[in-house]
Amino acid sequence: MTAGARWFYLGILITSCLIKTARAQQSFTWQQIKDKFEAANPTLKAVQLNIDESRAAEITAYLRPNPDFSLSGDGLQLGPNQGIWRPLSVRSGSAAG
CA dist 61 to 25, 70, 72, 97, Å? Predict the structure, then answer.
């Protein structure tokens, strides 16, 4: 056997071993590709966070009081009553004795 033939058979042996252990490429569905893209894209993650924050602010907007329209009962007294400031006291015209 010549040296060239030995190298040839050695190459065939190595190639046959590699073929057994080599894996075929995996085929992906469109949904798998989309999921991988969304998981690895920081811009999409940031946009999704902004959307979530906007939804949370929209929900809590209904729970907060309206700052433009409010009614307060504090300080309704326009002047002192017998020298005393009592903001929420109601006094009738005649004094009870």
Answer: 51, 16, 21, 52
With contact defined as beta carbons under 8 Å apart, do 54 and 46 qualify? Answer: no
Q: If 0-12 CB within 10 Å is exposed, 13-18 middle and 19+ buried, where does residue 77 land?
A: middle
- For the chain, the structural domain boundaries read 27-62
Look-up of token digits 């798998």: 32
How far is Cα 59 from Cα 53, in angstroms, rounded to an integer?
10
8 Å CB contact between 90 and 77: no
pTM: 0.34
| Tens-digit pLDDT profile for residues 64-83 | 776 666 566 555 666 777 77
For residues 96 and 37, give the distance between their C-alpha atoms in angstroms, rounded to a whole number. 81
Determine the Cα–Cα distance for residues 52 and 46; give it in Å rounded to an integer. Answer: 10
